[in-house]
């Protein structure tokens, strides 16, 4: 909650506030891990997604000084094709990838473990982490994220889910081609 509140405090007061899709979802309820944490997390998500949308719009309509000087990399691309993506990033900054760095990237994305702690840097099964949200979040929570973040999601090639069954079908990728 503390981190979410810090992000929410940076909110532009003129920004359009999104409504809750399910205004009663976990708010004020202790069972199910609620207690208002969803409310603060949604406020933070609104700020983060709004900022990301502005950044991506700038990238789409690049001023001359920015054109060719940035590269967008999705986490999913790094996880699915770590060596290819790593080589693209290094090539973008005119460096070559060492065999040690390739080995490190493979280890970090295909390790044996999986941590539920999102910012722990360790070798993990990144493809498992890639789809963890599909089993950890409810359909209602996923729809709320899509509502708040539809602009950056569309620009980055993330598809919306159509049903709870589609969310749970892990054989179906929800990644499309990014527009950047």
UniProtKB/TrEMBL annotation:
Residues 45-156 form the Sulfotransferase domain. InterPro entries: Gal/GlcNAc/GalNAc_ST (IPR051135), P-loop_NTPase (IPR027417), Sulfotransferase_dom (IPR000863). GO terms for molecular function: N-acetylglucosamine 6-O-sulfotransferase activity. It comes from the Eukaryota. Its EC number is 2.8.2.-. Keywords: Transferase. Coiled coil: none annotated. SUPFAM superfamilies: P-loop containing nucleoside triphosphate hydrolases (SSF52540). It is an enzyme of class 2 (transferase). GO terms for biological process: N-acetylglucosamine metabolic process; sulfur compound metabolic process. Belongs to the sulfotransferase 1 family. This is Sulfotransferase. It comes from Acanthisitta chloris. The lineage of its organism: Eukaryota, Metazoa, Chordata, Craniata, Vertebrata.
